[in-house]
Amino acid sequence: MSEIDYSKRSFNYYPTNAIVFSKCVGNRWSAPEVTNDFNFSLHCFAGVFHYAPSCFEGMKAYRGVDGRVRLFRPDENALRMESSARYLDMPAPSVEMFIDMCVKCVQENWDCIPPYESGASLYLRPVLFGINPQLGIKSAADVMFAVMCSAVGTYSGAKSLVPGAAVLSRNYDRAATYGSGGYKLGANYAQSLHAYNLAHKMGYRELLFLDSATHSHIEEFGSSNFFAIKHGCYITPNSPSVLPSITNKSLRKVAEEFGLKVERRTIFIDELETFEEVNSCGTAVVITPISRIDDKVTLESGTITREYRYGDVCGPVSEKLYKRIVGIQNGTEEDNYGWCMFVNDPK
Q: Is there a catalytic annotation at residue 184?
């Protein structure tokens, strides 16, 4: 494989060798297959095209400092996909099947895994979607589960721990109070695209959504969860319409390890001015520091912007949390929790 400059790569699709897939038809899963054909052949009436019975996951394979390849908490991704599939009332792969197919995908694309020194990783995208022809509005009876991958750099091309600005979403909601926000469905992301595009055009890296019922408290960013640091506390929203982030869950555990108090609770907008550090967190970035959050409030006299500032560098507590998680993922820190699963070289 030719030498690749991963420093120029962002979080995008780059060609790999193969994908792994299986179909569940009539409640029976087929044996997983490996193919280098990246085009699915689906019936035009497949439910995924009409009613969006689709969910997905995001995870990474890391080549460590010791040369070994690790998956970070794949069992959590498998359980979250099961939860999403239950919400959609469609079949889901077992935890064992999910992990086995992810491992197979990594092995089939072994020469695409970036070297440790690059800071890049092999991003895995497991997807589950309805394939049976249907016209009526109902859950998918038959599904395809596929695992694909891409060797990626950082999200949006930004360097690690470089802060970016965010804006509150006053006119658009990500998820309804009693809706599907707590599940990783493709439809949830479609819901946020227009608002996200507007924010990007305005120069913001992130869009911070509020609760849909009252627009009074914080939910999550368009791409990932929200957390803040204040007076020795790690604070993150507790809401059924917020996606249960595996990265956030891991950060909370590490925060406790460092002696921080962890609070999962309602966070009202006015509290933004009291935080010392604010971040978005997720698989693609681990942590992205937020330098500023703008709140644009429209009044009869015009639009007033209130700014909440957190500094132009990553906060010290957030940086410490980041380094601990990344260290576990790449083998430079002790994995006391057994979070990493090693993948063997297929040769």
A: yes
